[in-house]
Each structure stands twice: as structure tokens, then as C-alpha cells.
Design a protein that fits this description.
615 residues; alpha/beta; Glutamine Phosphoribosylpyrophosphate, subunit 1, domain 1; Rossmann fold; 3 domains; eight-stranded antiparallel beta sheet; globular; binds 5-amino-5-deoxy-1-O-phosphono-D-mannitol
């Protein structure tokens, strides 16, 4: 979740480091820091600030520091509050060694206890600081050798990616990785180090993805990589096509709003891209038509909003491909009993492709030699590199922490994929696949039309009215239940409103006790007449207890619309399975407007980060 960035070369490093940190700030924005070795004296200089990167940028503008090697960090706090003292870099006793770190040192308390006993001085509450102190024995040596670094990393448990810079070695950065991502961009007499290639996209296309449990000794024109036993490893240089598009809100007040509005186009782009790759898709997926034919189960693994997409896709696969599906939270998957099954296709869904829980679940599945594919929005991500095959959504960079267009493009890609899959299995005809493509594009338009139709009334009436409530219940059935979960997550995340989602049939098994005139109950309808009737009964139960109903319904569902205090409708002319995709834009917009009315920092909600690279 934190970002580490480093530079060593012939140029002053601060411009690159601040630009790299800014590109990756979505990973954490609790505090920021920068350290470099002064170009003349080689003295270690540093600057830190609590809060967003802009605070540090302003500080360094007023009190400039720079050098030919340096390290930078933005933090998502795990140990210790978000203060300036806890901002990285962290130091040894004499402040001549500095370290920036992403991850968690699980045994730091024991190490710190021993170090305090030996007389070391600590300046922060972080787990990271022990790393700097571990480097103390090598700072007076003539050379840093692999054995010395191996002896240090062998003492550290947990997940970590860190860069160490020592005042006594002004030509060297030490870069270490266990689980957390880290890569090195190889320039001409300069090296760029970062948590993600996007930090140095445009500077070089030569990249080394540091292997898991390895470290590198990096000078401006050389990289040597070693495993944790100190054995030298051969280097694999990849060529990356990663580019960085400057994210710009345009005329929108927030990135989230811009991203809500981009949905129609990126859904269409995603379908176009999948359509155009049809003939070579099997190769990209890493399996054969026979393997598809033999697939007996689908197993989805994901977190957060991506998990909601998987819960919705479960209905796609069961209804269209007639194949049983299980859906797992990645954070639970690794600690549950695992029954590897060779005819199961394991699908990891992750917008960022970097989520630690999803990555570790993938590694567990890979270790059993099973078929894995990744569905992500970032083709250069770790999950794509480690999965057997991949599908990519074309949402473009999603800047707001709350996922919107990444979710809708996941739904579009999964709806397309189930038809591709069912066709390859001879379960449907080619016409059905072509119809599915047209349906997704039609629904992308429905999504945008629904937004346009309700936008003004939400802005002028509903946002103000519903912003006063501090709790909410979200109900759905069948495919609209995971949509209700996703809506509840959005309200918690960006509006700081306590929200609980339930399968509507469970209402009378407990949550009905909560319903009164102070509790908005959001009901997400369904196209299927039988399921709709059941939802209607639930709406009546809420109404009878004085509850306030906000309904997301189809245009012809008059009974539900009449029961609701407020009803939003979408065109009735869409396939039932695409209901969540058609409704989601409207749902997101409504919640966005409520959060805006409540004065919340919508794009960067407190305590969260866009990419969750710690478990
Ligand atoms: O990058 P991923 O899709 O793996 O991220 C998973 C979750 O962290 C993410 O969806 C999170 O729940 C969003 N902030 C929700 O809006």
C-alpha cells in the first residue's frame, strides 16, 4: 500500500522521485518523505511531512534538498499513527542510514526489544525502523557484499519491499523484496526503482521485476541480484510498454465523477478489445479448447468490489454455461481448507493486479499446478505475470479509491467471457455470443441514459435529503443481492455511512428489527417476475414498519415504485443478467452525490488506499 521510489544516476533525483511518488500516490497518502545524499558532501539529508504528498512537495520547495541518489515514500499506515515522526524514511541511531519500506515486518517487536536492550535509539513507532538499525554493522565496511545483506534479510519476517541508502556508500542503493512488489528500471547510467513500473514509465522500457525473496545491489550502471542465501541470480530484463497518462479530472469536481461518466465508453472499449482478440484468446488464456470442454467448475477469488463482480459473475456462469461456481474472498481463501481440483478453472479478479491477498491466493493455487487466469485492468501487474493466462479490462487508469468503471468493465468482460466460454464448450451458438456483445453495448447506453435522466433531481433534491442519515440497509435478491453489497460498500467507503447489505429474504430473520423511520432501506429490484414479487413482499414488510424505501427498479415495476419514497428506474428492455450493469452508474452517482453533500473527501477516503499490497 505504501509506495517506495528510488533513483541513482547522473541527474539530480528529486524531480523523478516526486513525480514517481505522485504517479503512485493512490497507494497511500497518510504521510510522505524523501531522503538523498547531498551531491557534494554526501551527507544524508531528508524531509518528511504528514498528510498528502503535496505537503512534502511544498516543504521541499521552501527548503530544497537534492542529490544524485535518493529515496522517497508515501505511506499507508500499519504501525504507528500518521504523524511526521512515523513518515518514512527511517534511520539508524546516527541518521546516516535511511530506509523506505512497503509491507509489514512481523517480528519487529522482538527485534526492537533486543535493539533497545543493546542501546539503539528509536525515533518512530513503525515496524520499518528496525531495518535501518540492522544495517548499522555494515556501514563502516569497505564494501557491501551479498553475504552481509543476506544476513540482514534473513532476520526479517513478513512481507516487505524496501530500499536502503547509506551515507557511507554514495554509489549504492540496496533493494530488497519479499512478497511486496518491487521493480528496477534500467536507464542509461541511471537506475529507477519503484513499487510499480508506472513510476518510471517514459524514462526506460527496460525493467527487472525483482524476484520474490531476493535483493539487488544497484549502482548507476549495474545491478546484481541475489537470493536470501546470498547466491547470485541471473537477471531477466523485460521490455515494458507501460505508459503513464496524466490523470486529469477535466471539468469534473472529482475523479470518481469523471470515472462514473467514462463507463459507457470503457465498457464498449472492453467488449471491442475482447471481440478483436477472439482468435488468439486461447493462447492469452494459456489453455486449449479441450481444457475448456473439460472444465467442470469455476472458482473466483477476489477482494472488495472485485469480489462483488465475481458474485455477480457466478450467476452468469451458472445460467449461461451451466457450470457450478464458487466465489471466495482472497483474504479467507488462503486460510480455509483447499481441495485442489484439476478440472476447475481458477479466476483471480483484481482491478489493480497487485492486491496482496489475491496474489497470495493465486500463488497457492499455482503451487498445485492448476489452471489460473487473471482478470485485471493493468496488463503489467504482478497478478497478470504470475497467472497462467489473463483477460484485461480497458477501464483506463482509475484514480478514485472507490472503484466504479473498473467494476463495470469487470462485469462486461465477465459477461462476454461466459459466452465465449459457453460457445467453446458447445453450450451455446455463435449467434448467442454475438447477441451478448450487442447486449453489453446496449446496456452501456442504458447505464448512461439512466444517469442523465436522474442526475438533476439527485443533485437538487435527493442528495441533500438523504445525506442526513447515518445508517442504511441494502437489500437485493439473486443477482441484485451482490449489487446491494457493492452499493453498501460504496456508501461506507466514500460517505462514511454505516451500511449493511442483506439478501432480502433474510430480512425477517433479524435485520427487520432495525427498520424504523430513521433507516433508509435501499431495494435493488430484479427483472425476473417471481423474484420481483418476492422483493415486493420485502418492500411491504419495510413499509409496514415505517421504513423509508429507496428503490432501484425497472421502468414497468409500478408497485415497487409506488411503495418507495424515492424510486430510480432504468429501461425494462434489458436481459435480466445485465441488470446490475445497467443500474450501477445510477447507484454510484446517487452515493457520490450524498458523499459530496456530506463534505467527504471523495477521491481519497480516510484510512484507505487504492492498491492494497499488504495482507
Ligand atoms: O485492485 P483490486 O480489485 O484487487 O482491489 C480490491 C479492493 O481493494 C477494491 O475493490 C476496494 O474494495 C475498492 N476500494 C472498493 O471501491
Amino acid at each position: 500500500m505504501c509506495t517506495v521510489v528510488g533513483y541513482i544516476g547522473n541527474s539530480f533525483c528529486s524531480t523523478f522521485i516526486f513525480e514517481g511518488l505522485a504517479r503512485l500516490e493512490y497507494r497511500g497518502y497518510d504521510s510522505a518523505g524523501f531522503a538523498c545524499l547531498d551531491a557534494n558532501s554526501h551527507k544524508l539529508l531528508y524531509s518528511k511531512s504528514s498528510g498528502q504528498l503535496i505537503n512534502l512537495t511544498e516543504r521541499v520547495k521552501k527548503e530544497p534538498i537534492d542529490g544524485f541518489l535518493g529515496i522517497g515514500h508515501t505511506r499507508w499506515s500499519t504501525h504507528g499513527d500518521t504523524s511526521q515522526e512515523n513518515a518514512h524514511p527511517h534511520f539508524d541511531c546516527s541518521k546516516t542510514i535511511s530506509v523506505v519500506h512497503n509491507g509489514i515486518i512481523e517480528n519487529y517487536l522482538k527485534l526492537k526489544e533486543d535493539m533497545l536492550y543493546e542501546g539503539h535509539t528509536f525515533f518512530s513507532d513503525t515496524d520499518t525502523e528496525v531495518i535501518s538499525h540492522l544495517f548499522e554493522p555494515i556501514k563502516e565496511k569497505e564494501n557491501v557484499n551479498a553475504g552481509d545483506v543476506a544476513a540482514i534479510v534473513q532476520q526479517l519476517d513478513g512481507a516487505y519491499a524496501f530500499i536502503a541508502m547509506l551515507q557511507t556508500f554514495p554509489d549504492l542503493l540496496i533493494v530488497v523484496r519479499k512478497k511486496s512488489p518491487l521493480c528496477i528500471g534500467m536507464g542509461d547510467n541511471e537506475m529507477f526503482i519503484a513499487s510499480d513500473v508506472i513510476a518510471f514509465a517514459g524514462k526506460t522500457n527496460k525493467v527487472i521485476f525483482l524476484p520474490d525473496e531476493s535483493f539487488a545491489l544497484v549502482t548507476k550502471n549495474n545491478v546484481k541480484i541475489y537470493d536470501f542465501a546470498g547466491n547470485e541470480l541471473s537477471i531477466v530484463v523485460h521490455h515494458t510498454a507501460a505508459t503513464f497518462e496524466t490523470a486529469d479530472k477535466g471539468e469534473h469536481t472529482h475523479f470518481m465523477l469523471k470515472e462514473i461518466y467514462e463507463q459507457k465508453n470503457v465498457i464498449i472499449k472492453t467488449v471491442d478489445s475482447l471481440q478483436s482478440k477472439k482468435t488468439m484468446l486461447l493462447e492469452q488464456l494459456g489453455f486449449s479448447t479441450d481444457q475448456i470442454k473439460n472444465t467442470e467448475n469455476i472458482c473466483f477469488v477476489a477482494c472488495g468490489t472485485s469480489w462483488h463482480a465475481a458474485r455477480i459473475a457466478q450467476f452468469f456462469f451458472e445460467a449461461v454455461a451451466h457450470i457450478p461456481v464458487s466465489v471466495h474472498l482472497a483474504s479467507e481463501f488462503r486460510y480455509n481448507s483447499f481441495f485442489p481440483h484439476k478440472n476447475t478453472l481458477y479466476v483471480i479478479i483484481s482491478q489493480s493486479g497487485e492486491t496482496a491477498d489475491a496474489l497470495e491466493a493465486l500463488r497457492l493455487i499455482n503451487a498445485h499446478g492448476l489452471s489460473t487466469i487473471a482478470l485485471t485492468n493493468v496488463a503489467t501487474s504482478t497478478i497478470v505475470r504470475e497467472a497462467g493466462g489473463f483477460l484485461v479490462t480497458c477501464a483506463g487508469p482509475e484514480v478514485a479509491v472507490a472503484s466504479t468503471k473498473a467494476f463495470s468493465t469487470q462485469l462486461a468482460a465477465l459477461y462476454w467471457f461466459v459466452h465465449y466460454f459457453a460457445y467453446a464448450k458447445n453450450a451455446i451458438m455463435q449467434e448467442n455470443l454475438l447477441q451478448a456483445e450487442m447486449d453489453i453495448i446496449h446496456v452501456a447506453h442504458v447505464l448512461e441514459n439512466a444517469l442523465e435522466q436522474h442526475k438533476d433531481i439527485i443533485d437538487h433534491i435527493h442528495a441533500m435529503h438523504y445525506a442526513h442519515y447515518d445508517k442504511a440497509l441494502f437489500l437485493g435478491r439473486h443477482i441484485s443481492y451482490p449489487l446491494a453489497m457493492e452499493a453498501a460498500l460504496k456508501l461506507k467507503e466514500i460517505a462514511y455511512v454505516f451500511a449493511e447489505s442483506y439478501a432480502a429474504g433474510e430480512l425477517k430473520h433479524g435485520p427487520l428489527a432495525l427498520v424504523d423511520k430513521n433507516m433508509p432501506v435501499y431495494i435493488f429490484s430484479h427483472r425476473d417476475p417471481i423474484i420481483y414479487q418476492k422483493l415486493l413482499s420485502n418492500a411491504n414488510e419495510v413499509k409496514a414498519r415505517g421504513g423509508i424505501i429507496i428503490a432501484f427498479a425497472y421502468a414497468d415495476q409500478n408497485e415497487l415504485i409506488e411503495l418507495a419514497e424515492t424510486a430510480f428506474t432504468i429501461s425494462a428492455e434489458i436481459p435480466a443478467l445485465l441488470g446490475p450493469l445497467a443500474m450501477i452508474g445510477l447507484v454510484q452517482y446517487f452515493i457520490y452525490a450524498v458523499a459530496k453533500e456530506r463534505g467527504c473527501p471523495i477521491d481519497k477516503p480516510r484510512n484507505l488506499a487504492k492498491s492494497v499490497t499488504v495482507e
